[in-house]
Amino acid sequence: MAVVLVGGVSYAVMQTSVGPVLKSSLVNGPLGTSGFLAAFSLIFLSEIGDKTFFIAALLALKLGKAVSFVGSVASLALMTLISVQIGVVCSRVPDALTSSIPVGELAGTVLLVVFGIKALREGLRADEQQHHANDEREDAEEAVKGAETSGQIGGSAGGPAASLPQQLAQVATLIFFAEWGDRSMLATIALGAAQNPVGVAAGAIAGHALATGIAVLGGSMAAEHVSEKTINIASGVLFILFAIASIISLL
């Protein structure tokens, strides 16, 4: 229902005298199809206080800030490229199946609307947000503790310490599997289908890098001073805005 409403509003606006001007400004402006701003802002907001955010913060304390940052960003960059490629494949369904309807782009736009509504609903539930933030932190602590116990982080008990390449690989592996299937991955797929994949990849990697940098420099302290409610409402509004921009660019 909400997806139809957003699409209907976008179509109605395009039928007015300001429609062509608005379309030109959206396509060529910061909300346009370059994808960089959309991916950067959405990924950054999605990652602050997320499970991988806390994992990077914890690993920075155990293995060092540089190791945690490089390993995490390398893993998240790989995840981003995979996600964008999935989005591109979805947007290039054979013409025989899609006719003149851009199914892939529309599917990506629908996902943006769904994510936007979900983020707004979560943002308006303040009590549940605090519980969610605590859950993310606890999940991260359990993941790191489990990796230490099994020898996946820092080497096996009683054995030699892991070398630098091994530590980087350990961080990257832990972050990769923690991020797989996360909202930011799905958002990247949606953006990759709806907007320019190169811009989306660059923006998403930049967003991941900034969020990870904050995490390793003092993630736990930073998370305590950031309102989950504000982040979710802001990301929800941005999801909806970029969905509208994508719809208008297709009209």
Task: Record keyword descriptors for this entry.
12 helices; single chain; disordered N terminus; GDT1-like_CS; mainly alpha; 251 residues
How would you characterize this protein structure?
The chain is mostly helical and 251 residues long. The protein has one domain (33-92, 102-250). The protein contains 12 helices and no strands. The protein has helices spanning 2-14, 19-28, 36-47, 51-63, 65-91, 95-98, 103-123, 126-149, 164-179, 183-194, 197-224, 228-250. It is globular and about 60 Å long. GO terms for molecular function: calcium ion transmembrane transporter activity; manganese ion transmembrane transporter activity. This is GDT1 family protein. InterPro entries: GDT1-like (IPR001727), GDT1-like_CS (IPR049555). It is a multi-pass membrane protein.
**Category by helix and strand content:** mainly alpha
Oligomer: single chain
Distance between the termini: 20 Å
Mean pLDDT, all residues = 77
Helix content: over 70%
List the secondary-structure elements in sequence, H or E: HHHHHHHHHHHH
